[in-house]
Amino acid sequence: MPQSYLDSLSVAADAERRRERLAHGDGSVVNLVAERAGQVIGWGCYGPYRQDGGGRTADGEVYALYVHPDHWSSGAGRLLLAELTGRAAAEGRPRVLLWVLKANDRARRFYERAGFAPDGAEEDFVVDDVAVPEVRYVRDLRGPGGPAGPGGAGGARSGDTARVR
Q1: 146 vs 139: CA distance, rounded Å
Q2: Neighbour order of strands in the sheet with 117-127
Q3: What pTM, to 2 d.p., does this model score?
Q4: How far is it, in rounded angstroms, from Cα 49 to Cα 62?
Q5: Contact of 137 with 96, CB cutoff 8 Å
Q6: Is 50 helix (H, G, I), strand (E, B) or coil?
Q7: pLDDT in tens, the chain (165 residues)
Q8: How far apart are CA 147 and CA 27, in angstroms?
Q9: How does DSSP assign 105-141, residue by residue?
Q10: Contact by Cβ (8 Å): 60, 38
């Protein structure tokens, strides 16, 4: 990710943009937070899969999944992802897709352990005239690898004390 883009990010502007979306959204996007000891330590959201051109499909898409670095490998990300995929399955979505930066090996391993796999689709996310390659991952929610499979309801380790709401 270009440093110029990272330097231009504003927590206050992003928070205001998200407040607006939460207050005036169409209800199709699910936002969840992970908490530990009363502190928000992660956030994830999902909704209908967005096709190029603005269309939507029956599939779901994880739009974002973030956990504060101090809480990586604590189970919070697994809990968030399990809840997101579980809700997608409960809505009858056949698959969940997501996009991840191609060079983000840690995130790619995380998603693979949760039962996602790259499906061959790649796209460049252009930021400040720099192409940042992304790959698409997919997880089928039907059958044995469904939401109770790898990374599903049983995906969190025992002893995890984060909760999702």
Answers
A1: 8
A2: 117-127, 130-140, 95-101, 56-67, 39-50, 30-36, 163-164
A3: 0.80
A4: 8
A5: no
A6: strand
A7: 767 777 777 778 777 777 777 777 777 888 999 999 899 999 999 999 987 766 778 899 999 999 999 999 999 999 999 999 999 999 999 999 999 999 999 999 999 999 999 999 999 988 888 888 999 999 999 876 566 544 444 344 434 556 666
A8: 22
A9: HHHHHHHHHTT-EEEEEEEEEEETTEEEEEEEEEEE-
A10: no
Distances (CA, A) of 134 to 57, 78, 101, 143: 20, 21, 4, 28
d(C-alpha 45, C-alpha 28), whole Å:
10
Q: State which amino acid sits at residue 125.
A: F
Residue at token pair 């995130």: 107
Phi, then psi, of 42 in degrees rounded to 5 = -160, 160
DSSP-assigned beta bridge partners for residue 84: none
Report all structural domains of the chain as residue ranges with CATH numbers, in order of start.
3-8+31-153 (3.40.630.30)
**Encoded tokens for 12:** 């206050």
C-alpha 74/C-alpha 109 separation (Å) is 15
H-helix or E-strand containing 99?
A: strand 95-101
Amino acid at 134: E
